[in-house]
Amino acid sequence: MIHSINPRTGDQRQPVQESSPLDVHAAVERAEAAARGYAQLPLATRAAFLRAAADALEANRVAIVETADFETGLGPARFNSELGRTTGQLRAFADVVEKGSFQGVIHTPADPAATPPCPDLRRLLIPIGPVGVFTPSNFPLAFGVAGGDTASALAAGCTVVVKGHPSHPNSSALTAQAFVAAATQVGAPDDTLTLVQGRAPEVSQALVNAPGIRAIAFTGSERVGRLLYDLAAARAEPVPFYGELGSLNPVFVGAAAASARGADIAKGLVASMTLGSGQFCTKPGVVFVPTGPTGDAVVASMVAAVATLEPAVLLNEGLQTSLNSKIAASRGVSGVSESVATVQVPDAGCFAAPRMFVVDVRTFFASPALREEHFGPVSIVVRCHADEMAVAATNFDGQLTATIHADAGDLEWATKLLPVLVDKAGRIVWNGYPTGVSVVPAMHHGGPYPASTNSLHTSVGTTAIRRFLRPVTFQDVPEALLPSALT
Amino acid sequence: MIHSINPRTGDQRQPVQESSPLDVHAAVERAEAAARGYAQLPLATRAAFLRAAADALEANRVAIVETADFETGLGPARFNSELGRTTGQLRAFADVVEKGSFQGVIHTPADPAATPPCPDLRRLLIPIGPVGVFTPSNFPLAFGVAGGDTASALAAGCTVVVKGHPSHPNSSALTAQAFVAAATQVGAPDDTLTLVQGRAPEVSQALVNAPGIRAIAFTGSERVGRLLYDLAAARAEPVPFYGELGSLNPVFVGAAAASARGADIAKGLVASMTLGSGQFCTKPGVVFVPTGPTGDAVVASMVAAVATLEPAVLLNEGLQTSLNSKIAASRGVSGVSESVATVQVPDAGCFAAPRMFVVDVRTFFASPALREEHFGPVSIVVRCHADEMAVAATNFDGQLTATIHADAGDLEWATKLLPVLVDKAGRIVWNGYPTGVSVVPAMHHGGPYPASTNSLHTSVGTTAIRRFLRPVTFQDVPEALLPSALT
């Protein structure tokens, strides 16, 4: 059984039955059987299906928000907003489907005079086939069963088998119901979306290894993501694995910005690093602050802000254990100073005190412990001469985001830093904070490894649909037999 | 040393020095050092570079054609045409570069009234970084050092380290010179393209494993391609591996077409299967002919056409050995009948007699030996009731192409068959032959595994550029610091 636990109190509700590997294989077989029927629905029906799912989620808002709050401790305000984002992205993909240009139609007319003669060629992107979706613990709605990976795969015309995260089994079950209702309403196959629930590694392995699965989308930790990536690559028929594995999201504060508005930046950073208890993949995990008095003042402001924070509830006990061991390892690095919220952390439930480690740049890059993602309300402040930040940044691995805080006097500094960050990250944030990922056409949520396992693609924003489409070219095929998009 | 051998005669020319794994690593480091300089050339200069390389190849046409013919035996006519295709694709990519739309710019303006507020977001595709290109034996020009993978990677703005195929070392060296000359001419970095030569597996492994390599493009056998794919996936930082591994390219002949123009189809198929000595990745390797008298007549026409063919020169001894062992294995399958060209095959040199195996559909799918790609002038004819072809086709693995020959009376039959083939193949050919791949925007050369290792992408046609680009989004970055494409 998978337990439904309130991390604030340890209270439990009705547990959920865990799927077996055989259940997973059966689900994939049903997804395969449903694949052609779903792919061949008119685009208007596919769009209606996504909108009906959004409506069904909306209709069940009270229960969904209450359940997600119970299972995560993140509060009803957060889930009222996250549900809006979730339905918003389903509707955004419905619009994309209806427009049809995602199908990438290219027509090269016959040219008998060419050398060699060119036939009539019509290219179309078609759904790749059933997609396996792995959902993370931290966004039970927007990245959950009804989240962006599911929405983009369904929009592409693929059936989906989605594994609910064991940290919020009832939230997963409730959101999955919306797709069952939507399928009935528009006449899509019953097995267009199937939920499996699992905690055991064998369940995840079964989903990656099922022969009918044609692509995997994953949001989660680097450790688990890499294990599953390796499995996907080792299949007899390897399948694309779109993994979003997390990121340090470094922030660089320029000297002029620190001087002009250091206190504001400090306040904004502390708010961003503790949003959702610091459990965002775009949390600013590392902040480069210039050495010298203006930088000292920024750090002092951050320390003061952290000191007054309330304890943060974490999603589950596993994350708490993991965070505590990372904190202990970082604390053990020589030359690190630690600042922590002064309030007492409750003994019961899964809480963590917001905290910062301050360290010089050489120690930071020499210490693997400090460079680990501390998933929770913890960031590392790195003191570094502003002129050395561009060179230091070359030491980073791939990142989802990188942020620059710069005022007019920092432009020369930023001009040197920017190209290094473009090499490393999928999104560059200017005078802002990396948390908050708008679901719009120009968004990119991805980056060089390990931020993602495939830097060509995004998991947020409407271009995410491209991950689940493959081209087919029809050469001289008569109009009567062409897909309607090509005629 | 890598020997330069004429497969018709065994004559040898000046051998070429083999690169060591250390040489490969040094080449990749130079490609890394050149990467930013090359990427930041104005698009007009990048386009000029591709055109200058095409011009330099053209200027050296006589030597290139003579050398490629010497090293492959495929004849000067073939290489005069293949050189035109090679320069044509470099120029087609130059046009793509100049137009600039390949950069996939998307601008979502700020929307402060949205919930949550949306910042200004500008998305751009940027070069992924140095690309390792593995070239095959069968197209020393169009898929060689100056071929489509190189052209698309350079067009994307990536520097390239290309491994020449050991079957034609001097052809590789001659074509690489064009890029050195072009770099000098337009002021691109000297190390924009670097050629390494290798026969030892360690050379290939070094190129896949070099940390500076950001993507691999490969054309070659399923066996070697899978080995290198596995290496690329096992890197500490995995990189995309775009492998084109070959295909059976099944052809399906309808009963009405067989009846109306069986002799023409037979003639066309035999010409297609022996083009370039049958050493095309799109060779029709398996032909489904309906059972019954009209199908019998098609097979008889094919047998008669094959009987009169000249021996075909193969590219090298390794391919000859491999083909002979596949022929022996297919001949050993019970129920197979073999038809072969009647002329005596020369003892010297690397020759093969064009040949066909005829077998019933159950034996075909039950015999792994028959389903192996026979790289050379050999095809398998499968006798199958026309009504059973659609179901039989579900047994195929992924294919580059699938072909239907149908007349008006076959339309119902074709309507059932077509969706099965769309599931299996990257290109559907109607009443034509799969050999011949036009380099145009609507072309797709790829397909589900093992036709390619990544069915989302093509290695021929102008959309091949997308393999080497990754998105970056600039959030609220001031215009002065934005790449020029975004302002």
Structural summary, described in words:
- The structure is a homodimer of 487-residue chains.
- Chain A is α/β, with parallel strands linked by helices and 487 residues long.
- Chain A has 2 domains: 2-245 and 452-486, Aldehyde Dehydrogenase, Chain A, domain 1 (3-Layer(aba) Sandwich); 251-430, Aldehyde Dehydrogenase, Chain A, domain 2, CATH 3.40.309.
- Helices cover 41% and strands 19% of the residues of chain A.
- In chain A, the strands form 5 sheets. Chain A has a 7-stranded mixed sheet with strand order 13-15-16-11-10-17-18, with helices on both faces. In chain A, strands 7-6-5-8-9 form a 5-stranded parallel sheet, with helices on both faces.
- Chain A is globular.
- Chain A starts with a strand and ends in a 12-residue tail after the last strand.
- The mean pLDDT of chain A is 97.
- At the A-B interface, strand 3, strand 4, helix 8, helix 15 and strand 18 of A face strand 3, strand 4, helix 8, helix 15 and strand 18 of B.
